[in-house]
UniProtKB/TrEMBL annotation:
Residues 15-83 form the HTH gntR-type domain. It comes from the Bacteria. Belongs to the class-I pyridoxal-phosphate-dependent aminotransferase family. It is an enzyme of class 2 (transferase). It holds the Pfam family GntR. PROSITE patterns: HTH_GNTR. Homodimer. This is Transcriptional regulator, GntR family domain / Aspartate aminotransferase. Keywords: Aminotransferase, DNA-binding, Pyridoxal phosphate, Transcription, Transcription regulation, Transferase. InterPro entries: Aminotransferase_I/II_large, HTH_trans_reg/aminotransferase, PyrdxlP-dep_Trfase, PyrdxlP-dep_Trfase_major, PyrdxlP-dep_Trfase_small, Tscrpt_reg_HTH_GntR, WH-like_DNA-bd_sf, WH_DNA-bd_sf. Its cofactor is pyridoxal 5'-phosphate. One of its GO terms (molecular function) is DNA-binding transcription factor activity.
Length: 497
């Protein structure tokens, strides 16, 4: 209780008292003054200490809970949530927030290093700026402003702009997905979709399954809801079904989070057989499947990866699709298809998150879809990324040392590469940074790992003409790294540069 004695609430401030209190407690959590699982003061005691009514404390605690800083235990009170790493990790954000530390010394990434002109960025999933369809978007935006005028700036219903949902219903038929508009939820990017599902379905201590490794933003979201996370190994043809079945005999998950096509970070794609088996297990053991459709459009072997949702005969799949990754990431737009059994929970969680996704962006993108501009943009991006994919594949085969194993995907943007056992990709990352190369160490993609011998390369943020040069440079770094770190006697003391 003593830690709260210095909180000052200003009644002359236009900001509500409960918001002031919420912000003060939030600061104490972020700075570490309040440690994870610390119990917040009882409502009545804190109200008396601060000279406010009980409702102010209730609203402040509720606000903190909605923002994932605290959790409630029925009959016990409100507690600080366990500290999580950067919430915005993985492909949905720029590299400076992809991960916030590597190694035991938790050194922060130097943003200036990552964004300088000589850096070759094999880490970020954000497209290079030359690929943004600025001219087309500007025309569509101006047309919406001319036709819709002030209506374009109003709130939309939480579920999303109805004409856009109708357009998406028609668009996803090209993925062999049939859905009604009432099952479609507009979201502000895939990360928000994951967060909405977390809020809608996860209670404190609930079990959720994830692929291992997987997208870090999903791990962070599930941790923020105090879920019990169980990792299931992923293989080159999809999740390890035997391991999954064994876990299902012990645990009862609310859902499993998967990326069946060109998975992040591995690039693996599920076989048709494993997709069918996963659906059968969801039916048998009564759990949902959260499908993050991660760039299934970017198939480079003439075999389009079909979504799990397209064969969802049991209505167990909650399908999340982002437009941002190959459009303009800053616009944050996507959609979700969900069973009506979770309708009320999803709509409520979306409303709490941000009321509704930008109406102006929704209307503009609806025009994109109706006029076929989006479809043309997809074709353009496929051409660009296929060229990068081919150059990347050739360069990796040409330059990388034989001790390094490359898994060549069939599409997407990611290349999952393994060092020999015992070598640290965290240490490799630090060496690469000194040489103006950025990679992502594999530890980022696991629930609790501090280190890994895997690392990820991505072709989204590197220009075509940089790829061969960058891989050649990376290979020289790897040769030096393997030589020095292969001598265990030198490992503790010898600097790499």
């Amino acid at each position: 209780m003593d830690k709260f004695k210095n909180i000052k609430l200003n009644r002359e401030n236009s900001q509500h008292l409960y918001i002031q209190l919420s912000n003060a407690i939030k600061k104490m959590i972020v700075t570490g003054e309040l440690e994870p699982d610390t119990k917040l003061p009882p409502i009545r005691k804190l109200a008396n200490k601060l000279g406010v009514n009980n409702v102010t404390i209730v609203n402040a605690y509720k606000h903190l809970e909605n923002e994932n800083y605290v959790y409630k235990k029925v009959g016990s009170g409100t507690f600080v949530k366990p500290k999580i790493e950067y919430q915005e990790m993985g492909l949905h954000v720029p590299i400076d927030t992809e991960f916030n530390s590597v190694g035991n010394d938790s050194k922060l990434i130097n943003y200036d290093i990552i964004t300088n002109d000589v850096t070759i960025n094999f880490a970020s999933g954000m497209p290079t700026p030359d690929l943004f369809p600025v001219s087309d978007f500007k025309k569509a935006l101006n047309e919406i402003l001319d036709t819709d005028k002030g209506n374009a700036f109003g709130y939309q219903e939480s579920q999303g702009f109805y004409p856009l949902r109708c357009s998406i219903k028609n668009y996803i038929k090209s993925y062999n997905i049939d859905s009604e508009t009432e099952n479609i939820q507009i979201i502000s990017g895939a990360q928000q979709g994951i967060d909405i599902i977390s809020k809608a379905l996860i209670d404190y201590g609930d079990v959720v399954f994830i692929e291992s490794p997987t997208y870090r933003g999903a791990i962070a979201s599930f941790k923020s809801r105090s879920a019990r996370i169980i990792e299931i190994p992923i293989q080159e043809d999809g999740i390890n079904i035997k391991s999954l079945e064994n876990k299902l005999k012990v645990f009862t998950p609310k859902f499993i989070y998967v990326m069946p096509n060109f998975q992040n970070p591995t690039g693996y794609t599920y076989s048709n057989n494993k997709k069918e088996k996963l659906l059968d297990l969801a039916k048998k053991y009564d759990f949902y499947i959260i499908e993050d459709d991660y760039l299934s459009e970017l198939s480079f072997n003439n075999l389009k990866g079909f979504p799990l949702k397209s064969i969802d005969k049991y209505d167990r799949v909650i399908y999340i699709k982002s437009f941002s990754k190959i459009f303009m990431p800053g616009l944050r737009l996507g959609f979700m298809i969900f069973p009506l059994s979770v309708y009320n929970d999803v709509i409520s969680a979306k409303h709490v998150s941000d009321i509704s996704t930008s109406g102006l962006i929704q209307r503009t993108f609806n025009l994109y879809l109706r006029k076929g501009i989006w479809q043309k943009h997809i074709q353009y991006m496929q051409t660009i990324y296929k060229k990068r994919f081919q150059i990347m594949t050739n360069s990796l085969n040409k330059y990388l040392p034989k001790q390094v194993h490359i898994n060549l995907p069939k599409g997407g943007l990611n290349f999952w590469i393994s060092l020999p056992n015992g070598f640290s990709s965290n240490e490799l990352y630090n060496l690469c940074i000194k040489n103006n190369i950025v990679i992502v160490p594999g530890s980022v993609f696991y629930k609790d790992k501090n280190d890994s011998n895997y690392f990820r390369l991505n072709t989204a943020s590197v220009y075509t003409e940089q790829i061969d040069e960058g891989i050649k440079k990376l290979s020289n770094i790897l040769i030096q790294f393997l030589k020095i770190y292969g001598n265990k006697e030198l490992r503790p003391t010898t600097p790499l540069l």
